[in-house]
Specification:
The longest helix has 22 residues, at 78-99. It is built from 9 helices and 2 strands. It is mainly α. Mean pLDDT is 76; it is low at 99-124.
């Protein structure tokens, strides 16, 4: 694995084609190795299932890192910053699984083309909230249907709504995992851009259901 400066990491991860794919693959290897050390006090890293867990955590971390490259200030090594992101992602996921925290982002029920967050499925919401919730859900539904390509929509639904790992999605869509990372990354950027055009942020949508 070639040594990279901070600038080289940023340039290659933002590139297209083989250079990007190689950088993503190397970063995944680095993060999976680092998670074994970083999570030593949290989970049994010698358990057979840890390899699968670490791979899933690293894949989610790479998506988050690609989404937040602009926030890397360069005050540390890029890989040090990336490790912190990966450990944070892993701990958040471990807490979510441990306490079965059903969040708006993570648990949505798919049915007949609708994407209804279970958090919003309150059978009797307060009258003052019902209309606002319905409007927010309709807006999210419209964005998913109109802002994304068919492949992006399939990948996003499988990842965020059905909770499938990147490798599972890759097998389902007959794509390489690196291509799925890019597909999910682009889908999230499109949704954020579409929300921004309407003067909204993801936090605005989530706040409706709190």
């Amino acid at each position: 694995m070639a040594y990279r400066t901070n600038e080289q990491w940023l340039t290659q991860l933002q590139a297209n084609g083989p250079e990007h794919d190689t950088a993503v693959s190397d970063l995944l290897t680095i993060l999976k190795s680092g998670l074994r050390r970083g999570l030593l006090a949290q989970v049994n890293t010698s358990a057979p299932e840890f390899e699968t867990q670490a791979a899933d955590f690293a894949q989610e971390a790479v998506l988050k890192i690609l989404d937040k490259l602009h926030s890397f200030a360069g005050r540390s090594k890029f890989t040090t910053w990336a490790h912190k992101v990966a450990v944070s992602v892993a701990l958040t996921e471990l807490r979510r699984k441990r306490w079965q925290d059903r969040s708006l982002d993570g648990m949505m029920d798919e049915g007949e083309g609708d994407y209804t967050p279970s958090l919003a499925a309150d059978p009797a919401p307060a009258p003052e909230n019902a209309a606002e919730r319905a409007e927010a859900l309709a807006h999210v539904q419209k964005l998913i249907d109109e802002a994304l390509t068919k492949k992006q929509r399939t990948a996003l639904v499988a990842s965020v709504i059905q909770g499938k790992s990147t490798n599972e999605i890759a097998r389902q869509m007959e794509m390489k995992p690196n291509a799925v990372y890019k597909l999910l990354h682009d889908a999230r950027l499109r949704l954020k851009h579409s929300l921004a055009q309407d003067g909204l942020t993801p936090a605005d949508i989530i706040s409706v259901f709190e």
